[in-house]
């Protein structure tokens, strides 16, 4: 069947900027995320530049990754930066207690991370150890990374091969401090934050945005946001983090499979991802109380799907496959982030390679680009664009006890001056015919790309040509100031209007 819908685009009422950081990535020392996924070592047969795989860097450059969050996650609160500098053969080997107890060689440390980010062309978001570290360790790491002077830490950095300071635009003060980052109460965390912040010395050498830990994942705890906003205060922080994972069942014990899932599992997954928007609105409203000028941004610095691990793999390595469902879900979330661009200034999908909702999966010298990767690619024109209001009346569809909007969408004026609309059709069965009233926009041509496939769990496989890839979109037409778009079932569409 074909569902119909109407929308109105208001190009004469431009909204806030959609920061490129909204397309950030999260890369933790977890499973094969860093080791294998990024770091293969200089002696590897896999083509690399200074130990960092070239195929992965090239793929990430294509989606214009603007920001990479590192080294965790839970890992960050057990990480001691001194383990990861100096001659690699002299670095200590540690146990990665959070993630399968796997050995951590520390071969990928501060210099290797910045080399990776710089090869990709991304900015760095460094997470500081608050849970098991102290303000001195933080201050010294920041000085090591950023000091331009002659002090001992800057000289040590130079001795280790880096003359100029690294650019560190974003620093997280703790991660999930209510859980793996220290099991703190919001009052205790707020005090800790204030203490660390006192030794942060934000200034010319260290201009980094300071990100405070936000509410527990799941988003239900309003009190955390209340206490942290009130006790830390908007003058001491630049961003508040929000983590939200989409589990098809909503249950951590049995989350649901990444492939071979039912139609109901598809619907359940989307119904859960829609809650992220509710949490952005809810926590945004609490922030408004303490920060009406919106000086503190909301950083959704962990989001994405979390399924049961691929059978036969280490449960601590969070390796899952990635299908069309993940690509459509990414677009749904992008549209939320655009809609709430007044508060949401940065996000980081979890995680870049081989972990959770990954862009890239690797196996030895092979790589696979996932449907999520292609959704990111299609949405590149939204980076640093200006959001435009798009009033949409979505048709709904029902499955079991759930009724969902079939589509969501967002619009923006790109840096190239063109108007872009991004759309996701969450309905697995029906196409949607959308008529958009273009208002005062004078456009005569619509072009774009569509990502879809016959099966809900269609995916790309290692070593064979990818099939779930964006193709040229032919479903749009403009007549007068009306744009019509035929959106195939279970698809992502991005169009450019000329
Ligand atoms: O992304 C995996 C883990 O999920 C992160 O380490 C942690 O911050 C979150 O609980």
Considering the chains and any ligands shown, give keywords for the structure.
about 500 residues; alpha/beta; TIM Barrel; seven-stranded antiparallel β-sheet; binds alpha-L-arabinofuranose; hydrolase
What is the CATH H-level superfamily of the largest domain? Glycosidases
Number of strand segments = 28
**Morphology:** globular
What average pLDDT do the residues reach? 97
Identify low-pLDDT runs. Answer: none
Going across the major beta sheet, what is the strand order?
3-6-9-10-11-12-13-14
What's the gyration radius in Å? Answer: 22 Å
Instruction: Please report the number of helical segments.
Output: 10
CATH topology term of the largest domain: TIM Barrel
Structural class: alpha/beta
CATH class of the largest domain: Alpha Beta
Please describe the biggest sheet, giving its number of strands, its sense, and whether it closes into a barrel.
8 strands, parallel, barrel
Subunit structure: Homohexamer; trimer of dimers.
GO molecular function: alpha-L-arabinofuranosidase activity
EC number: 3.2.1.55
Organism: Asticcacaulis benevestitus DSM 16100 = ATCC BAA-896
Brief overview:
This protein has helices at about 55-60, 110-120, 135-145, 150-160, 185-200, 220-230, 265-275, 275-290, 325-340, 370-380, and strands at about 1-10, 15-20, 25, 50, 50-55, 65-70, 95, 100-105, 125-130, 170-175, 210, 240-245, 295-305, 345-350, 360-365, 365-370, 385-390, 390-395, 395-400, 400-405, 405-415, 420-425, 430-435, 445-450, 470, 475-480, 480-485, 490-495.
């Amino acid at each position: 069947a074909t569902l119909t819908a109407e929308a109105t685009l208001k190009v004469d009422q431009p909204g806030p900027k959609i920061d490129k950081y909204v397309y950030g990535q999260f890369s933790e020392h977890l499973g094969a995320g860093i080791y294998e996924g990024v770091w293969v070592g200089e002696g590897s047969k896999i083509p690399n530049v200074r130990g960092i795989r070239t195929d992965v860097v090239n793929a990430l450059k294509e989606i214009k990754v603007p920001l990479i969050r590192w080294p965790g996650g839970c890992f960050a609160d057990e990480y001691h930066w001194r383990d990861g500098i100096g001659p690699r053969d002299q670095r200590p080997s540690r146990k990665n207690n959070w993630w399968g107890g796997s050995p951590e060689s520390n071969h990928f440390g501060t210099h290797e991370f910045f080399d990776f980010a710089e090869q990709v062309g991304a900015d760095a978001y460094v997470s500081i150890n608050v849970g098991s570290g102290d303000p001195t360790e933080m201050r010294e790491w920041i000085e090591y990374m950023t000091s331009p002077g002659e002090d001992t830490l800057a000289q040590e950095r130079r001795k280790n091969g880096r003359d100029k300071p690294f650019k560190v635009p974003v620093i997280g003060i703790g991660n999930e401090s209510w859980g793996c980052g220290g099991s703190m109460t919001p009052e205790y965390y707020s005090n800790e934050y204030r203490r660390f912040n006192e030794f942060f010395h934000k200034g010319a050498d260290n201009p980094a945005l300071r990100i405070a830990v936000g509410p527990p994942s799941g988003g239900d705890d309003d009190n955390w946001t209340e206490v942290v906003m009130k006790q830390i205060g908007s003058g001491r922080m630049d961003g508040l983090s929000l983590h939200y994972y989409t589990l098809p069942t909503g249950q951590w014990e049995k989350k649901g499979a990444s492939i071979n899932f039912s139609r109901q599992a598809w619907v359940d997954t989307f119904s859960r991802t829609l809650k992220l928007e509710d949490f952005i609105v809810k926590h945004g409203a609490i922030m408004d109380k303490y920060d009406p000028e919106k000086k503190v941004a909301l950083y959704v610095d962990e989001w994405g799907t979390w399924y049961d691990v691929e059978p036969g793999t280490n449960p601590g390595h969070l390796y899952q496959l990635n299908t069309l469902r993940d690509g459509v879900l990414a677009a749904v979330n992008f549209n939320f982030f655009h809609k709430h661009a007044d508060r949401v200034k940065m996000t980081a999908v979890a995680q870049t390679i081989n972990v959770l909702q990954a862009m890239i999966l690797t196996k030895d010298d092979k790589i696979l680009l996932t449907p999520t990767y292609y959704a990111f690619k299609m949405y590149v024109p939204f980076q640093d664009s200006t959001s435009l209001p798009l009033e949409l009346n979505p048709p709904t569809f029902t499955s079991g006890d759930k009724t969902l909007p079939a589509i969501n969408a967002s619009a923006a004026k790109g840096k190239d001056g063109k108007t872009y609309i991004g759309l996701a059709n969450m309905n697995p069965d029906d196409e949607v015919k959308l008529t958009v009233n273009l208002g005062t926009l004078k456009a005569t041509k619509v072009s774009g790309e569509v990502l879809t496939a016959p099966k809900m769990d269609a995916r790309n496989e290692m070593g064979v040509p990818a099939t779930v890839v964006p193709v040229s979109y032919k479903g749009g037409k403009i007549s007068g100031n009306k744009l019509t778009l035929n959106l195939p079932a279970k698809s992502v569409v991005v169009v450019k209007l000329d």
